[in-house]
Every structure is written in structure tokens, then in C-alpha cells.
Amino acid sequence: MKRAVVLLSGGLDSATVLAIAASEGWRCHALSVDYGQRHRAELDAAARVARALGAAEHRIARVDLGVFGGSALTDPSIEVPHAPSEGIPVTYVPARNTIFLALALAHAEVVEADAIFTGANAVDYSGYPDCRPEFLAAFERLANLATRRAVEGHPIAIAAPIVGMTKAGIVRRGAELGVDYALTVSCYEADDRGAACGECDACRFRREGFRAAGMADPTRYRA
Fold it and tell me: Domains plus CATH for the chain?
């Protein structure tokens, strides 16, 4: 069976991508990253999603991006905004997706995977530069220059099946594949039980996605 590493945050987007990869016949090695994020409940959600969608394994890699700070998700002194902001918001974590993909690339070499699936999206998103198709294409070129597996004739593809989809389209596709979105956590300020604030960008995009898809929102909100 063809193998893939699937980056799994525990949120709506990555859960959908895991379901897509599984539906295409990939043996999915789910990989989450504990990077010092304030919304750590997403890691528990990732474990639930991996089990529910039949991942072959679920690993958590640990790297402390809080050492550098510079983001509301890793620096407790920076508040998560509760309203849309101009430009790239403070919830952007410097180089996060580059680091995540590099970790997934290492895992892909070890398990002899031919693809890395990511939930990057460049439509209904906050404008993070490392979610754009041109970044993903550039990383794929890097991956196939930098790895023994690729040099020996087994290139590694970077698959981003939802990168050009609206949030409503993502929700509909996941529902078709049986994703239980009640298992997922998207909120940047989720509490230890995974209950969402309902006000951050992640909550706003998620809520609007369910509304536009004409589906009930299963998110547990604190208020």
C-alpha cells in the first residue's frame, strides 16, 4: 500500500485532509506537532481524529517555538485578536509550516512515504504566507533535493488537496467522507476541554464555513 505522512493539527482542515488521503487509498501516518501552542487541546483532538479515521499510526513531534515567540499562539504576552486585522495577523507563527513540513519530511524518509499531505488553505484563511501554493511547490522542490529517498529515485510529493477550497467546500467534502467535526478543535484559545472562544479568526472562519455549507455547527463554545 502506498504510504503518506499526514500533518494533523486536530482542526477542521487537517481532519478533512486525513479523510481525503485515506479515501484515496493511502496508508496514513498521522503527525502532529507540539510546538508550545497555547491551544494545546488540539493535540488531544488530533489523537481522536487519527483513531476515528483509521490512521496507521499517530505520532507527536515536539519542538518549542515559544523559545522565539513572536506570535499570539506561542507568546502569552500577545493577545489573540478577536476581530479581523489588516495584513498578516499576530497569530502567524514564524516559519511554522516550514518547520512542520521539515519534520514530516524526516518522518516520510523513515516510513518510506511517497507523499506528505498538509491542510494548508489559501482561500478562507488569515493570509499566512506559508499557506500559499507557491510556498508548497517550493518546498516540494527542496524536499526532492534534500532527501536520500528522492535522490535514489523515490520523489516525495507535497499534497495540499484543500489549498484552493472555500471553508464551506472543505466542510462539505469532509462530511461526504464521514468526518465527525465534533471531534476537532480549531480555536486559538480553546480551553483544556477543547471548548472554543467563538471570537478568534479560526472560530470565525469555521463558523462561517458551516453556515455557508448549510450544515449545523458541532463546535462546543464556552459562551
Answer: 3-213 (3.40.50.620)
